Amino acid sequence: MNTPVVTELFFPSPTVSAFALGPLTIRFYALAILAGIVAGVWLTARRLRFRGGSTAQTLDIVAWAVPFGIVGGRLYHVITDNQLYFGPGKDPWGAVRIWEGGLGIWGAVALGLVGAWIGARRAGVPFTAFVDAAAPGLLIAQGLGRWGNWFNNELYGAPTDLPWKLQIHNMNQATGQAVTGPGGAPEVLGYFQPTFLYESLWCLGAASLLMFLDRRYKLGAGSVFALYVVLYTAGRFVFELMRSDPANTILGLRVNTWVSGLLFLAGIALFQALRSRSRSEVGTRSPDPRTDPAEPIQRTNT
Questions:
Q1: What is the pTM of this model?
Q2: Can you give the pLDDT at residue 286?
């Protein structure tokens, strides 16, 4: 009689995070970020057209917002996790090697908003119209970008025996390969909560909810972005409590846990202050029944 083979269930992680293309090394982390940006820009352009804007205006603003956001995200990461790059035995040049991972969303959003404000002024688009149009796309970009952390075998939670536990390898980020053991097999560090996956799914679900609420209730100028802050930080607060990777703490809580909680409260206050305003718009135009919502846009000066 044959003994049945019991297969352990787990969510696998890649053993390769990069590949060579001629003289170039392509990082999957960078590709995930790029995929998120492309999807987010596409949705933002579509939503800005609903508000009377154009795809060209979206691209003009994004050309300012994205570089500012990447720089801001890296600065936040390096400042809040400076021990990774500075100190005895550390490599300070690692602070500029963004392709190895490490973007702080709070810095990316903060400096990205500065870039968006500059771009919106140059493009003749009200700032609130752009950020309200961009909010769901930003969530989608974050959700897709989290898969870069999957390729890097990072951002995981506590050890677990759940069927969807995440297998984590010992990765050499410099080579983009998993470290191999004596037998040539990739080294497995253990099985953990897939917090990157939880956050990715939360972002995609929150984007759908945000678009539904905006369509259903015609949220006031600026309040769509405020609600983005509320939805994202609510999930991020929980996921930060679950994570087990090293991080700086204040009074026993991770820095990002504190930031998430404070921004959640600020987002609620901002939403309450803005939700009764008129809907954010770029200008008057005749709606296209093939692509536009049923109601036409009439206001021009929000």
A1: 0.84
A2: 41
